[in-house]
Amino acid sequence: MTSLLERDPHICRLDSLLDECADRAGRAVLVEGPLGTGKTELLRTFAGRAAGRLDVQVVSAGCSAQERALPFGVVGQLFRTANWSTRPVEQWLLRADVTARTGPADADLSPSPELLHTCRELARPVFEAAEKPLLMTVDDIGDADEESLYFLRYLVRHLAQSRLLLLLADGTTNRHGRRDLYAELFRHPHVHRLHLRPLSRASTLRLLAEGLGEEGARQVGDGLADAAGGNPLLLHTLVEEHRTSAAPQYGTALLSCLHRADPGVLRIVQALAVLGEDATAADVARVAGDEGPETVAEILNALTAAGLTDAGGRLRTDDARGTVLADLTPHDQAGLQLQAARLRLDAGVEADAVAQHLVAADHAPAPWGVPVLTTAAEQALLDHRHRFAADCLRLAHRSTADEQAKAVVRHRLAHAEWQLSPSMAARHLAALTAAVRAGHLGLDEALSVVRQLLWHGRGEEAVAVLDLLRSRAESANRNESAEASALRDVETWLAYTHPALARGRRPPRVPAEMRHVALPGIDPSLGAAAALAGALAVGRAADAVGRALQTLREAQLHAGTAWAEEAAILSLRVLVLAGRTDDAAAWSDRLLDLAERREAPTASAMYAAARGETALLLGELATAQESGSAALAHLGPAAWGISVGLPLSTLVLAATRAGEHRTAAKHLTHAVGEAMFQSLYGLHYLYARGHHHLAIQHNHAALADFLSCGELVRGWGLDAAGSVPWRTYAAEAWLRLDNRDQAWRLVHEQLSRPDADRAQVRGPALRLLAAAGPPGRRIPLLTEAVDLTESSGDRHEQIRVLTDLSRAFQAAGNKRRARLLLRQALHVANMCGMEPLARELLSVSGDLDSGGPVDGDARDDSSIGALTESERRVASLAVLGYTNREIALRLYITASTVEQHLTRVYRKLGVRRRKDLPPDLWANLRKAG
After folding, report:
1. Average pLDDT, the chain
2. I want to staple 265 with a disulfide (CB 3.0 to 4.6 A). Which of 261, 418, 794, 813 is the partner?
3. Which of 332-336, 501-505, 832-836 has the lowest mean pLDDT?
4. DSSP label at residue 70
5. What is Dmax (Cα atoms) for the chain?
6. Cβ contacts of 146 within 8 Å, gap of 6 or more
7. Cis before 367? omega within 30
8. pLDDT over threshold 60, residue 38
9. Cβ(570)–Cβ(533) below 8 Å
């Protein structure tokens, strides 16, 4: 790789000056340029060229800031390279009063005669040795010790008649400490200057092409060129990093450049990294604290000239800023961050910017630090930046002394951490409960503590807190106040979601219209959650649809409040129980997307679980399993608390219906705790487990689970809520145990319930009624059940009803209708991934006479898409086995019109008769509808 691009003119100039030295025309050259522009490489390369000449002697030295206090340290390097005696230095150092005589510690003092004498003695072998041209190179003279600098100045003054070429390299920042050397250099005509600049864009791209190849340069060249800013050192580092796929080294290379500069330069860059964008030289000077604004401006300009910062004075990459900050000790970084925080505060910037520095410093100075942090945290919570809010509040809590103020800050901290993970917030519950008892928290904060206690299964503590709050309200005679209303709201919600903890206290019946008045100082989502829970508890979900939709529309506005997700989840349940599962699925998708964009894991987990539940009801098993797994990925089972029953029940049911019984059993191994069975989540868990037991023929265990569901809802007084149709599936378990009387009784009870008209309840119940009743009634019952399960969207039940109806027609001797129904059921089972049902259907097909393949002829969607809507409707009913007259009655058209439609359908699909119609017609009709 070419390493000295754009440096050929400088090499030629130095060759010429070296040739002049052969005629006793000594020269000194100052090679200067910004950091990393190749001064060291130029000296090394030219020294190597000169050493290759027989008539040239080369001696070299490099300076280090760590050796600046070593007298004549640079001279020692030069003399050792040339094998010259350093006896004058040794004698000078041995003198007892050397420190008093030299005086170079103060640059304004003149050197002592002893120092001047020593410099003259040292110069003698240099000039005497120069019988042939002598090249002496000294790199980084800004780090040379003062004694060596006096020696170099002496050489400069006396080299005009020598054969010495003195080559010195220095940077362009903070030359004040070397002003005497520069004054000496620039007053002599035999001193020359070479200035190195960053590489041009063309040379940068050429170097990249040499290092990465033409193809690699085309792919990443522009980005690397922008990051390097033409600085050769950074450019070489980036090329090597990209070529070897090593860990990022840009920041390390930048630090290497900065550490080679004056210490003040690094301090200024550190201050710049702390301040970030739009920092002025005055701001940097105040934070760095070592240099004035003019000097800082000069250094910043030099950094820009070196390509280390962009035209706006900013570090070019986030990696650079992060590396510079990581290089600071914790103490130094805290100091810079606090200086930056105070600067921002005095400038009147927003609390958010000030708080970022305080959090980075991990310190909140009194008296202004805590108010800044709490203000910034509130804004961050409004913006759904929960992690930053939690960082601010942790620091504020640690820095607050007053007990009541500390409790309020802790509550806000627990709320912010709850959004990230309820298990993270759980560590505050004991202290928050104590704060409620001490009266340090208001009612709204206390009720959010109650909800968190319930989430983690600490029901007794939650009830104790509620009793305390109620007694306080009663003793203060505030029974009609907002506090009393809020407490009644919590009791209403509690009686539906955690009914075992209601302890016989029944909330007032919530009217269908439900109040919409927001209580002052109380989370508005609490009232919505109570109204929806009250409607669900009395089985009036249909009456609450309007309030549910309103709550969902306002979810974005109230997202992040203590009760927002709870109200939204209850709204989705209202839609499901009101028969609007498609709407519930659409809303859960919308809320999940919003929560994920806001990086709110707890809300994301809850909405993913809700989406899984709706997908399961719609027969979308893959989506149900993905959503349930996503819910447990956002929050682990421990963080879910007792609410883990929600995603687990979905996963168990989805795996059971997909025939993945081992997977379902694995989900059931999660530890859930007894407290879960005091809540609605435990009810759903038992219901799902009962279905798993049914699927694996553990009928007694299944019956026990479904009957336990019944005992729970009856004991809670929630039988009217219709949360799970436990009677229907207990009846199925009784049937499998050959107890038709018990099955018949339970099904009739289910059909006599207030919610019996709901399609998702009545359809399965009719299927079980047909199975338990006389054969003569099966076809009418199952025909009605087909329509109900189709309208409810419950594909699992729909397949089971179609299968039973196919068997009923087969038993009645109508094998054509039986075969068509079976084809339809098998198609839906395969489409939904319900393998157990699909296998069952294939076994049933063996009992039917041949008349075409059971799974139907393959038809692509394009041929079906050629049908008009009316043709699809007629054909779909024909697939189900309806006669022309039956189709005409259902669609309110004439039998002749039906015949004409079917003729066109046959022609478009390329079939000759009804039995050849593809079952896909039914599925496409559903999509179109």
Report:
1. 85
2. 261
3. 501-505
4. S
5. 130
6. 71, 104, 105, 107
7. yes
8. yes
9. yes
139 beta partners: 62
Beta bridge partners of 32: 170, 195
B/e letters for 180-215, b = 16+ CB within 10 Å, e = fewer, are bbeebbeeeebbbebebebbeeebbbbbbbebbeee
Tell me the two tokens of residue 312. Answer: 């706006």
Identify the band that residue 462 occupies on the pLDDT scale cut at 50, 70 and 90.
Answer: very high
**CB-CB neighbours of 131 under 10 Å:** 10
pLDDT value of residue 107: 47
Instruction: Give the per-residue SS3 of 159-208.
Output: CCCCCEEEEEEECCCCCHHHHHHHHHHHCCCCEEEEECCCCCHHHHHHHH
Q: Which residue in the block uniquely carries the two structure tokens 């009923």?
A: 808
Measured distance CA(266)–CA(260) in Å, rounded? 9
Distance between CA atoms of residues 785 and 680, nearest Å:
28
Structural tokens at position 770: 């047909």
Distance CA 359, CA 339 (A): 13
What are the Cα distances from residue 179, in Å, to 142, 192, 291, 744?
10, 17, 17, 106
Least Cα distance to 554 among 570, 567, 536 occurs for 567
Query: Whose structure tokens read 């810079």?
Result: 336
Q: From the CB of residue 402, how many other CB atoms can be counted at a distance below 10 Å? A: 11
Residue 893 is classified by DSSP as -
* Mean pLDDT, rounded, for 157-185: 80
Q: Of the candidates 333, 336, 370, 339, which has an alpha carbon nearest to the alpha carbon of residue 355?
A: 370
Token pair in block for residue 866: 């050629």
Query: For residue 576, which phi and psi values (nearest 5 degrees)?
Result: -65, -50
Q: Quick one: how far is CA 397 from the chain centroid? A: 25
What is the rounded CA–CA span in Å between residue 556 and residue 594? Answer: 8
Residues linked to residue 31 through DSSP beta bridges, in sequence order: 169, 194
Structure tokens at 512: 């269908």
Identify which of 163, 162, 157 has the alpha carbon closest to the alpha carbon of residue 188: 157
Q: What is the DSSP string of 205-246?
A: HHHHHHHHHHHHHHHHHHHHHHHHTT-HHHHHHHHHHHHHT-
The rounded distance, in Å, linking the Cα atoms of 170 and 182 is: 11
The overall pTM is greater than 0.90: no
Instruction: Give the C-alpha separation, 139 to 64, whole Å.
Output: 9
Q: Residue 544 gets which letter from DSSP?
A: G
Q: What pLDDT is attached to residue 364?
A: 92
CA–CA gap between residue 827 and residue 810 (Å, rounded): 19
Q: Rounded CA gap, 145 and 827, in Å?
A: 89
Contact 823, 815 (CB under 8 A): no
Strands ordered across the beta sheet of 27-32: 57-62, 134-139, 164-170, 27-32, 191-195
Burial letters for 3-12: b for 16+ Cβ neighbours within 10 Å, e otherwise? Answer: eebbbeebee
**Among 192, 47, 196, 248, CA closest to 133:** 47
pLDDT over 70 for what percent of the chain? 90
Hey, is 285 helix, strand or coil? helix
CA–CA gap between residue 267 and residue 756 (Å, rounded)? 77
Q: What are the DSSP calls for 421-468, one per residue?
A: -HHHHGGGHHHHHHHHHTT-S-HHHHHHHHHHHHHTT-HHHHHHHHHH
